[in-house]
Amino acid sequence: MTATANAANFDLAFSGFAGGPVSVTGLTLQPGGNYVGDRVATVVDGNGRRVAAVVLSRNALRLPTDNSGAAPATLAANANVAGSAAGQPGSAAVNIARAQGAGNALTVTAANPGAWGNDLRVGIAAVPGGFDLVVNEYSGTEIVATETYRGLSIIPGDAQFAEAVVNPVSRLIRLSNVGGSAPRESSSGVAVDRLTLADLTPLGGGTDGTLPGEPAWAANAAAVFSGVFDAAQGVGSYDQIVPELFNIMAVPEAPLMTDGGFDTYSAAGNYCRTALAFLLVDHPIANDRVDLIGNWDIAGRLGSDLARSAAICFPRLDKADPLGGRRQMQSSGAVAGLMARIDGQRGVWKAPAGLEASISGAVPTIGMTDRQQAGLNRAGINCLRVKPGAGTVQWGARTLAGADILASEWKYVPVRRTALMIEQTLRDALGWVVFEPNDESLWAQIRLNVGAFMQSLFVQGAFQGGTPREAYLVKCDGETTSQQDVNSGIVNILVGFAPLKPAEFVVVRLTQLAGRLAN
Q1: Least crowded by CB within 10 Å, which of 172, 205, 399, 511?
Q2: Average pLDDT of the segment spanning 455-468
Q3: How far apart are CA 496 and CA 476, in angstroms?
Q4: In terms of DSSP H, where are the helices of 360-439?
Q5: What are the residue boundaries of the structural domains of the chain, listed by start?
Q6: Contact at 8 Å (CB) between 37 and 122?
Q7: 93-202 has which CATH code?
Q8: What 3-state class would DSSP assign to 231?
Q9: Which among 461, 473, 469 is positioned nearest to 497, based on CA atoms?
Q10: For the chain, first and last CA: distance in Å?
Q11: Using one digit for the tens of pLDDT, what is the confidence trace for 207-227?
């Protein structure tokens, strides 16, 4: 298993499975037993304390939490794991007896808590001046991981002292209670590389603890995401991700929350508003029907201020599962990918829709007619459809404030994203203005710099209008910045642009003239 905090996806990304521990931002994920047929992992901090449990279902991540509803343990920045599981896990361990006399020579403990440690076996062989140690991890009778340490010493302070050599580097075990007594050999006179499975001593007592139920993880995961428990967690932790600049956020798991994702999307929307980013919204599975999607009023719950910087992705997608069969998934991740592709090829002012806005390897979970799609489009719902010769495409470019009845100026995704891009770029590019004398000389420099940026966008075809005067406006002078503003340390810059709006319908009128057809 690999785990990374990915700045583009804003989540923990998982790939594959492993039986050993994996470190993630000061935490460790350790695979364990089963939970409703799924794969369970224990999450422990750097001190070996369990802080959460996660469920890996066909490569999907769930975040179960304490049934009591208690606040989760403090996690490392960017971990974004919700809560502590009910019941504490146990670490597998075994005592190795002394070679001579009663008592134990040392204790071998699995590197992290969890039932995975029960698959470890250790072997000891005596060598002049010390001992060799081997630890194998098994899947049945097959060795899946092995570590060998030679010439270990039982004398504290020695360069080859067992604890000092093994503990800092081993991925599988930790040694303790080593001090002065040689450990008993696993098989008299047999070197560690010749020890058999039967010769090795198994570790035991490792447990994954008790996992909580579904409602608890949903409630607490939403609370952690929204920063209720700790402002350094949830969306607040994204401030620490490098690079800081991002422009699209997707939270595919949000609709699985007990409230359908409203609270989670509200937190995400507020964060995107501050970051000048755009939010992609998924719908609950229960609403994955043409006649039911309108019942999920996410636009009304977010409010017009947040809805104008968000869009819904409908319906879900169906794709082949590498593990076998088919798998349905939320579509926001795929839509984010096609948006990023079109941004790079055409610019954010190009609607992320049409025949070029294709998604490979997946099809919508439901089909729809042109009439049905037109009705959803007028309601501000962007649809994924299958078009002959193009495959699965995004066929809509409305924001959540894009319903015809709302008549919003931020009706279209490319218009809103162009405005966000301009504001985000200028905010970052005008850092040099701070602490400069706030006078006409500064205003002229600002007009020059901002005007050059807007002209570059005009040349690329980002605006309507045949001339710069028709396409954009940059104003920074004594009218935008009053003397009171100057006294308050404020400089105001007015930037306007004529947006490109996408053509949603092609209307063809036919008239028959003198026995011939003309358009």
Answers
A1: 511
A2: 94
A3: 12
A4: 370-378, 413-429
A5: 93-202, 245-413, 430-497
A6: no
A7: 2.60.40
A8: coil
A9: 473
A10: 61
A11: 876 544 445 556 656 666 666
